[in-house]
Amino acid sequence: MAQASPFRPKRVDGAGSPEAQPAQELLILPTGVFQVAEKMEKRTCALCPKDVEYNVLYFAQSENIAAHENCLLYSSGLVESEDHDPLNPDRSFDVESVKKEIQRGRKLKCKFCHKRGATVGCDLKNCNKNYHFFCAKKDDAVPQSDGVRGIYKLLCQQHAQFPNSAQSGKSEKKRGRKKHLSGNHIQSPETMKCNTFVSQVKEEHGRHTDATVKVPFLKKCKEAGLLNYLLEEILDKVHSIPEKLMDETTSESDYEEIGSALFDCRLFEDIFVNFQAAIEKKIHASQQRRQQLKEEIELLQDLKQTLCSFQENRDLMSSSTSVSSLSY
């Protein structure tokens, strides 16, 4: 990425007259030149509705960088460079900080779309889910904001159901920066009802693990129309296992979690029986392949020895012919 260009005075948003510009001119000091960090400039999409959260962009012309306002606000490693002025709706992000956040995002994959650039992380300290902001919403993650304290954080769907467990999360570093939320992130009544119900039955399930509780629990899910939701959550968890195991950055705790899910669940007992048969089949195939390789090696060694004998006989015959010709 190109280096940031030298500072050039810019208009203060909300004060478009030329008289407002001298306040940001360079200050010449005896020890050198003091430069004000270049800020991202606010832009609004002329074709989007005014009340949608994705119509507000911030742009850095010198670096050809553009980013959605909420993508900036909810990025875990980015804070505003100045305290927010309540009378000014514009945000304060300096270009260099945004460039560093873009660089950090290149190492992070989104849980939803599996592409890099996922700078919005779940606020729970031990959760390693990362998203693009709009992918997070598609995955039913829950953005949370406190405009007074300047905290903008996100909880994945799993941890949004237990907000108390996320109080010691990653959002502390955003305090002291006053940020503004341009979109409406209030959960729908259906989603809140669903999350509350799942939270309650999970707590009940944790207190009683015998079959007399598990059966009514499943029946209640069915009556509430949440059985498919529960099964989809389980399937999503199972589908994410191969990706986690193949990822080189998978942590030891992830392996332990996956191991517990697979080996401690009676649901997979038949699978393990079949898997054992597959192992035996692979062992047999490997033994056959090893026997074939052994026979092939023996054949090649025999061929090599035959060739050596042929070469020796040829040399011997050539030597005898030479001696015979000399005797004449």
Automatic annotation (TrEMBL):
Q: Which SMART domains match?
A: PHD
Q: Name one GO cellular component term.
A: nucleoplasm
> What InterPro entries is this protein classified in?
EPHD (IPR034732), PHD-type_Zinc_Finger (IPR051188), Znf_FYVE_PHD (IPR011011), Znf_PHD (IPR001965), Znf_RING/FYVE/PHD (IPR013083)
Looking at the record, the residues that make up the PHD-type domain are 42-160
| Residues in coiled coil | 276-306
Q: Which SUPFAM superfamilies match?
A: FYVE/PHD zinc finger (SSF57903)
What's an example of a GO molecular-function annotation for this chain?
zinc ion binding
Task: Work out whether the entry's keyword set contains Cell wall biogenesis/degradation.
Answer: no
| Compositional bias (Basic residues) | 172-182
Q: Where is this region: Disordered?
A: 1-21, 163-185
Which UniProt keyword terms apply here? Coiled coil, Metal-binding, Nucleus, Zinc, Zinc-finger
Q: Where in the cell is it found?
A: Nucleus
- Please report the name of this protein according to its UniProt entry: PHD finger protein 11
What is the source species? Rhinopithecus bieti (Black snub-nosed monkey)
The primary gene name is PHF11
